[in-house]
Design a protein that fits this description.
Blueprint (H helix, E strand, L loop, with lengths): L7 H12 L9 E10 L11 E2 L5 E2 L2 H12 L3 E3 L5 E6 L2 E5 L5 E5 L5 H19 L5 E3 L18 H11 L5 H7 L3 E6 L3 H13 L1 H8 L4 E2 L2 E2 L5 H7 L6 E2 L11 H9 L5 E3 L5 E3 L5 H5 L10 H9 L2 E2 L1 E4 L2 E4 L7 H15 L2 H11 L4 H14 L4 E2 L2 E2 H19 L8 H9 L3 H12 L4 H6 L4
Parallel strand pairs: 12-15
Antiparallel strand pairs: 1-7, 1-8, 1-9, 2-3, 4-5, 5-6, 6-7, 9-17, 10-11, 13-14, 16-17, 18-19
Helix pairs in contact: 1-9, 2-3, 6-13, 7-14, 7-15, 12-15, 13-15
């Protein structure tokens, strides 16, 4: 591949990624968990307290953050108006997604058994506050009942800028912000070469990941025709920053090329010299360097903003690769998904096997397989590549890797092992029960996905 010239600013991103390479002994794992709150009458958890017709008040996310801070002495993170937006806890950062989905982004820990223990303790602290309210946390990838108009956008300047931008870029961008939830797995890289291979493998396996962990077959009270409607929502969000990042498969792709890609990515938001958020108007860092956005420079913060605004199914962050192809899930499935991915990405043999299996597919075939996986799950095929066959092969490799690590993480795979025997995903299990056991009573979906 003929490499484009890299100016000093773009090179800063590449060198920053290189500076974060971990030693093998330092390798850890982190997880990001988003949860959708819902009341028993199927109305959404909002940022603001709401007064009911009965005269009582229904607490919102701002109140939740205030009480968690008060009860646990966790410092609050505020917006520029002093309103609570998140918390700093001993195990990681709590933040709010645009529709008041509560996200816990854990610090990195040695193993997933430890992560699970830490998250369980944190979620018990949340439940101590929300259970008496009658608030439920549902383990689904898309809010199954409410419309975009039902859900208040939190008071974040950045999110309001994104909301307006994405409303003009894709049919479902505002749905992505307000209605979706996911599980993301963060896995460290120990060399530049390994980081690129981990990125490529994460993108190649994304169709299989959706087939295994799809969990969003309902929206606005109806079946969507997708096992992962969340995956479809992301496809209709913004084509310039989502999807399978075909650029990562160009010959010789490295951190310099990744940085160059980010340098030319259209930005939704930027920050000025006082760190105030401003609309990026779809301009790139390259265009900002040319002076096309007044009062804004290609500062280090804005280069980091470019990294944050790439929403591909996997992306490289500072010191780790982030896997993004997992729907919001109930806890058992959540840790099965994280364990599966850890076993694949931390095993060189597994990564090589993935490239051997999927590497024969061209760009169009990879996209076709991805599209099929959202609707057909493990029955998706392209040519000789059959996801249900590949799933069993990669499961065995992942399980072997987890056993060799010696933390007991392989036990977390049990829900996945059970589903593979019946060619199921969380979504297909839900749909079977919806049609047979629940007789298409949509409220049963809510009742059976509460955590």
């Amino acid at each position: 591949m003929k490499r484009p010239p890299h100016n000093s600013k773009g090179q800063w991103i590449a060198e920053l990624l290189r500076s974060q390479i971990r030693q093998p002994s330092e390798r850890r794992v982190g997880i990001e968990i988003e949860r959708i709150g819902m009341w028993n009458d199927l109305s959404p958890f909002q940022y603001s307290d709401n007064k009911l017709m009965s005269g009582s008040y229904r607490p919102g996310a701002a109140t939740l953050l205030n009480l968690l801070s008060e009860h646990n002495q966790w410092p609050k993170i505020h917006n520029h108006k002093g309103q609570p937006m998140g918390l700093t806890t001993p195990i990681g950062k709590v933040s709010l997604e645009p529709g008041s989905q509560v996200e816990l982004s854990t610090d990195p820990f040695s193993d997933l058994v430890t992560v699970k223990s830490k998250v369980d303790h944190f979620e018990s602290k949340v439940s101590e506050v929300t259970r008496p309210w009658g608030l439920n946390w549902i383990g689904l990838g898309v809010n199954p009942f409410n419309t975009v108009q039902d859900i208040e956008l939190i008071p974040s300047t950045r999110y309001h800028i994104m909301d307006q931008f994405l409303n003009e870029r894709g049919k479902l961008g505002t749905s992505m912000m307000r209605k979706t939830s996911s599980v993301q797995v963060n896995l460290d890289y120990t060399s530049e070469e390994e980081a690129i291979q981990m990125l490529q493998v994460s993108l190649l396996v994304a169709p299989l990941s959706y087939a295994l962990f799809a969990n969003s077959p309902f929206s606005e009270g109806n079946e969507t025709g997708y096992f992962s409607f969340r995956g479809k929502i992301w496809q209709e969000t913004d084509p310039s920053r989502t999807g399978l990042l075909p650029e990562a498969f160009e010959e010789g792709f490295n951190f310099d090329d990744y940085a160059h890609f980010l340098w030319h990515e259209p930005l939704m938001f930027v920050q000025d010299s006082k760190t105030n958020y401003l609309p990026g108007n779809g301009l790139s860092l390259a265009q900002i360097e040319e002076g096309k956005l007044s009062q804004v420079t290609c500062s280090e913060e804005n280069q980091l903003n470019a990294m944050r605004q790439l929403f591909s199914e996997a992306r490289i962050k500072l010191g780790y690769v982030e896997v993004r192809s997992i729907d919001g899930l109930l806890p058992d499935y959540r840790y099965a998904a994280a364990s599966f991915w850890l076993g694949i990405l931390y095993n060189k043999q597994a990564r090589n096997e993935v490239i051997k299996i999927f590497g024969k597919l061209n760009r169009n075939e990879r996209q076709t397989l991805f599209n099929e996986s959202l609707k057909k799950g493990l029955d998706a095929t392209v040519g000789n590549v059959k996801l249900n066959h590949i799933a069993k092969t990669l499961f065995e490799i992942s399980e072997t890797e987890l056993k060799s690590r010696g933390f007991g993480e392989e036990t977390l795979l049990e829900p996945l092992k059970a589903n593979l025997k019946t060619n199921d995903s969380p979504a297909s299990v839900l749909l079977k029960r919806f049609h047979k056991e629940w007789k298409k009573d949509i409220k049963k979906v809510f009742e059976n996905t509460k955590q």
